[in-house]
């Protein structure tokens, strides 16, 4: 009997191929939002690389892309937390302009040391965020109204403190925050050797971390990516990372602003993925009443989300002022729209509860590459604004389509 059953089993078609196919299909379906924006970013890069005859990915232009979009990416990191909680912040551009003006008065007019002025500027950003967070979290005034009022208020205050004029120049130590580069400790000629070594080290740490995480997931019987997808993603990430650092090494190396951005991404990704407070942010955006009944202090979390947004708005204003080497009344104009667009293009939901920090960064890069590519092609600001508007509309429509399809 046993022999007969063995023969029958041998003749049965193997279901492992179907199982693997189903696993891959389910994985791609459940991660369509994440991978669609990565594919979109790659498509836009390739498109503009071809249209600009290779200018887009020149080492100099890659560095310029980082420097030009740094302050928007900083805002996007804070904005994605605001959007996840189900709110919006229209005041970030005006806050950035106001804090940039205050920093100029402190450093240029009163000659306060750079470090002290930066700390005071960030503290002012926190106070502004606390002011707005109080009205939103505790008084329950809609965030749209509070931050719209803040946009008008702090734009007006910027013009008042600057008296309609620009203040410049900033100390050289402050300018280096946005325009400086990491020194090459190995003294390479032609190539920035330190940057190349950092790329290799980061690649090794990434591979070790991914393998360790996968082993832990398997150990605890959690769902993992199909092995082929896992290896392909890891190999592609390593290749892209090293090509990126090689491009930077061909110019001046790693910009200081990129180090600041990398630290922010690491800290905020750890906060959203590993810390209880980060999970509370998602819980509020998913269902605030349910989160409150589950013991989440919803008012406190919302309040601190806006304090955090105030600090990052201040940091964005400092970075922009340092790059421009001046504080101007028109600084920060439309920053809020670029930051919001970056979050939605990067996969954040207009309904709250969904969004990631890496997604917001990818969305910001999509916007930045589009701006840069269209500028290289000689398109006017009118066409650029129109095209960006259509891209934003398409991103939100895609989100609504996915939500309706899931329900």
TrEMBL record:
Localization in the cell: Cell membrane
Main location: membrane
Bilayer topology: Multi-pass membrane protein
Entry GO CC: plasma membrane
Membrane-spanning segments: 35-57, 64-84, 90-108, 115-138, 144-164, 185-208, 228-246, 253-271, 301-322
Keywords linked to the UniProt accession: Cell inner membrane, Cell membrane, Membrane, Sugar transport, Transmembrane, Transmembrane helix, Transport
CDD domains attached to this UniProt entry: TM_PBP1_transp_AraH_like
GO molecular function, one term: transmembrane transporter activity
Keyword Iron-sulfur on entry: no
Protein role: Part of the binding-protein-dependent transport system for D-xylose. Probably responsible for the translocation of the substrate across the membrane.
Record's protein name: Xylose transport system permease protein XylH
């Amino acid at each position: 009997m046993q022999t007969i059953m063995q023969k029958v089993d041998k003749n049965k078609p193997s279901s492992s191929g179907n199982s693997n196919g189903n696993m891959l299909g389910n994985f791609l379906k459940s991660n369509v939002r994440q991978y669609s924006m990565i594919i979109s970013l790659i498509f836009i890069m390739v498109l503009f690389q071809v249209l600009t005859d290779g200018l887009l990915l020149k080492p100099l232009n890659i560095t310029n892309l980082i420097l030009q979009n740094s302050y928007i990416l900083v805002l996007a990191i804070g904005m994605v937390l605001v959007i996840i909680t189900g709110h919006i912040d229209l005041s970030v551009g005006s806050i950035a302009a106001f804090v940039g003006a205050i920093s100029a008065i402190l450093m240029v007019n009163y000659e306060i040391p750079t470090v002290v002025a930066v700390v005071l500027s960030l503290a002012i950003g926190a106070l502004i965020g606390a002011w707005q967070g109080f009205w939103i979290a505790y008084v329950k005034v809609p965030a749209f109204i509070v931050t719209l009022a803040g946009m008008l208020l702090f734009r007006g205050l910027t013009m008042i403190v600057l008296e309609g004029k620009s203040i410049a120049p900033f100390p050289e130590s402050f300018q280096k925050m946005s325009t400086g580069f990491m020194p090459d400790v190995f003294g390479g000629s032609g190539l920035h050797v330190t940057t190349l070594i950092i790329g290799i080290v980061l690649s090794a740490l990434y591979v070790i971390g991914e393998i360790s995480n996968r082993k832990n997931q398997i150990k605890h019987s959690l769902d993992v990516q199909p092995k082929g997808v896992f290896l392909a993603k890891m190999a592609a990430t390593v290749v892209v990372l090293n090509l990126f650092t090689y491009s930077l090494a061909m110019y001046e190396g790693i910009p200081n602003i990129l180090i600041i951005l990398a630290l922010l991404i690491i800290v905020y990704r750890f906060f959203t993925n590993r810390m209880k407070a980060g999970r509370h942010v998602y819980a509020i955006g998913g269902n605030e009443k349910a989160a409150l009944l589950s013991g989440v202090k919803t008012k406190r979390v919302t309040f601190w989300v806006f304090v955090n947004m105030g600090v990052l708005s201040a940091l964005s204003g400092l970075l922009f002022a340092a790059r421009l080497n001046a504080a101007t009344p028109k600084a920060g104009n439309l920053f809020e729209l670029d930051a919001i667009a970056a979050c939605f293009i990067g996969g954040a939901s207009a309904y709250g509860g969904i969004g990631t920090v890496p997604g917001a960064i990818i969305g910001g890069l999509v916007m930045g590459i589009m701006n840069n590519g269209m500028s290289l092609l000689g398109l006017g600001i009118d066409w650029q604004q129109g095209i960006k508007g259509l891209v934003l509309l398409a991103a939100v429509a895609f989100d609504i389509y996915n939500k309706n399809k899931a329900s």
